[in-house]
Structure formats: C-alpha cells, structure tokens
Amino acid sequence: MIMDRKEFLSQMGLGVASLLVPVCIGGLSSCSKVGSGTPAPSNVDFTIDTSKGALSVNGGYLLQSGVIVARTKTGTFIAVSAACTHEGTNVNYSSSSASFICPNHGARFNESGAVTQGPASKSLTKYNTILTGMSLRVYS
C-alpha cells in the first residue's frame, strides 16, 4: 500500500504524540507546582568580582548559588533569593522598574524583595552585601 504525503504525516504525528503523552502526563503532576515552596538558600556566603561581567555595569545582574545579585541604576548592590515564591521560577532584575520580575506569571518584587504584584504572596529573602574594593560579599 502506498501512502500519500498527508496520510504519512498524519500517521507520523499520531505516532510521535503517542510516544510523548506518557512523558507529558507523568510530568504534569511534578510540573504543576515546580518549586512551589522552594526554600530560600540559607548560610549564604560568597564573594563576586564586580570588575567584570554583569555586575560591572549599573543595571546588571547574575544568579549564583540560588541568589540573584543585582547592581541598581545608582550602582548599589542588592541580593535576594532567586526563586519566585509563587512557583519557584528564577526571577529577573529590571533596573528600569527597580524590581525583580517572575517571567512565568508576572509576580513582581521591589528591591527589598517585598511582593508588589501577585500571584506571589510571600517576599523574597534579602541577603546582606558589602563591597570591599571590587569584591562583593553576599551573605546571610
């Protein structure tokens, strides 16, 4: 029996879909609340060289050890837990709005980590920062 292209692609699509359905179904329960209740890192204590990379410019940020470290528009350094308290997705820093934003559901946090827009209802954990020369220490 010879198939035309449309029939072949239709059958291939069903075949691939049938292979993926178990993966998707199995993953749904574990993905529905990915990171929900993810605890903020504790005993944080690390140092970053601010003379190069993302923190060498105002507005830059980076993620290290579960902490997002940002350099504000004015050049001060801030650090908060990276996981959104809604579902655990890593937040991004926006220097233009002086806030941390979750790319998944739009939760927003101010530079102190406090929730300014849901769906998150719990603040991000804020960490201490101290700059000595070009070395930034981030600690609990």
Structural summary, described in words:
- The protein is α+β, with helices and mostly antiparallel strands and 140 residues long.
- It folds into two domains: 1-32; 45-139, 3-layer Sandwich (Rieske Iron-sulfur Protein), CATH 2.102.10.
- 19% of the residues lie in helices and 31% in strands.
- The protein contains one helix and ten strands, in the order H-E-E-E-E-E-E-E-E-E-E.
- The protein has a six-stranded antiparallel beta sheet with strand order 1-10-9-4-3-2, with no helix packed on it. Strands 5-6-7-8 form a four-stranded antiparallel beta sheet, with no helix packed on it.
- The chain starts with a helix and ends with a strand.
- The model is unreliable at 14-35 (pLDDT under 50).
Write the layout of secondary structure elements.
Blueprint: H1 5-31, E1 45-49, E2 61-64, E3 67-71, E4 77-81, E5 92-94, E6 99-101, E7 108-110, E8 115-117, E9 126-132, E10 135-139
Antiparallel strand pairs: 1-10, 2-3, 3-4, 4-9, 5-6, 6-7, 7-8, 9-10
Shape designation: globular
What is the C-alpha radius of gyration, as a whole number of Å?
Answer: 21 Å
Uncertain runs are 14-35
Report the structural category: alpha+beta
- The beta-strand count equals 10
Order of helices and strands: HEEEEEEEEEE
* Major β-sheet profile: 6 strands, antiparallel
Corresponding CATH superfamily of the largest domain: Rieske [2Fe-2S] iron-sulphur domain
- Overall pLDDT metric: 82
- Number of separate helices: 1
Q: CATH first level of the largest domain: which class?
A: Mainly Beta
Query: Approximately how much helix is present in the residues?
Result: 10-25%
Strand content: 25-35%
* Gap between N and C termini: 70 Å
Q: How does CATH name the architecture of the largest domain?
A: 3-layer Sandwich
